[in-house]
Amino acid sequence: MYLKEIEKEFSDDLILKQSFQDIIPVENGLVILLPFSIISKQYIYICDYPHFSQRLAHNAIPDDCIFFIVNCDNSCRSLQLPPTSTCLFFRVSMENFYMRFNQIAINNEKNLKDDQLIKMCAAWNLLLKGQDIDFTKSFYPFKTYISCILIEPENLRTGLSAYSHLLEIFSDFFHDPNIFIYKEKLIVLYSQDIRPDSELDFSYSRLNELLEKYRLKAAISNACRYEKMYATLYRIASSALRLSKFLTPAVQKYTRIIQYSEFSMYYIIDLCVKEFIRIHNHKDIIYLISPSVIELYRYDKKHNSDLLDTLFHYLLCGRNVSDTANVLYMHRNTVLNKIHKISSIIHAPLDNGNVQFTLLMSCFIINYYENYLEEKL
Fold this sequence. Notes:
- The chain is an alpha/beta fold.
- The chain folds into three domains: 3-102; 140-267, Nucleotide cyclase, GGDEF domain (Alpha-Beta Plaits, 2-Layer Sandwich); 283-372, Arc Repressor Mutant, subunit A (Orthogonal Bundle).
- 48% of the residues lie in helices and 15% in strands.
- It is built from 13 helices and ten strands.
- It has helices at residues 3-9, 49-57, 94-128, 135-138, 160-174, 204-213, 230-244, 260-280, 291-303, 307-316, 321-328, 332-346, 353-372; strands at 14-18, 30-32, 44-48, 66-70, 86-90, 145-153, 179-182, 185-192, 216-224, 257-259.
- The chain has a five-stranded mixed beta sheet. A five-stranded mixed beta sheet has the order 7-8-6-9-10, with helices on both faces.
- β3 (44-48), α2 (49-57) and β4 (66-70) form a beta-alpha-beta unit.
- α7 packs across α8 (260-280).
- It is elongated and about 105 Å long.
């Protein structure tokens, strides 16, 4: 803390100042100087004027220390002070001094946080433009594995004050200082030492509750160890967030958390479709779909059935009839009858791994085509 900040705050109440430094080291806080305290140079002491005067009279105030003395009057001007100690004498009470001193500290902390947020945002912008940055100069230290988390309000007109409030809430939740605002989203570069499996090492249920409370969505990327891939993590999470507004994953564990793993197949299709359009100059991607799936699709349209959806979940469930029945809320025998009907229509061996993959990918493409591109076969 700069001494001039204290002088400015107490300009009307500072009677006397003897100072040999411009910066006051407040890391260890203020210590009340008690009658029998042993004074150490590593602390800043606060005491009332009578106690300080008594100590001074007994040569019990050492050199090279810092003292804030309160409840003073003009008689302090006649004191013979230790030649190399910093001593400031104030008219105010100890309670008043504490209150105003703490406010200076709070304002300083806020200014430091604001400066750091600006640094992180500027560095992130450069990173996304493909420039190399020194992470040690703009971000707090990372642990081994990094995941990018994007938090977006449902109402994109959320004001700056609301974002600041959300910043505090999620900084406390993640216990990670690498969080900042970028293009109407909160960006969290969450790090942990252990390689994550399906989830990171915080409570997804608790996060989902917070997101629900503040009407937010959060997209979570995979994790990696390499700084040069942080921009890729961001773009992957951002794409998952975009796709989630049109597509529903086959299995979604949390209502407001979008995990990239749940949308990875759609993201792969999204990348392929962009290249398809670039090469072919149209977006009629049904030419990438298995003819068997198109045949099932047309059968459903003609007979108002749901065989394609049954096939999709049957393959997702590893061809387990009971699991498929549970997911689709059907009786097991109903699923079996539908599978027999599907086999009679497409004439493809459903126990063949290559056939399974082709059919499953085709189902994903149809979902993307209808719900994201908003096209009809």
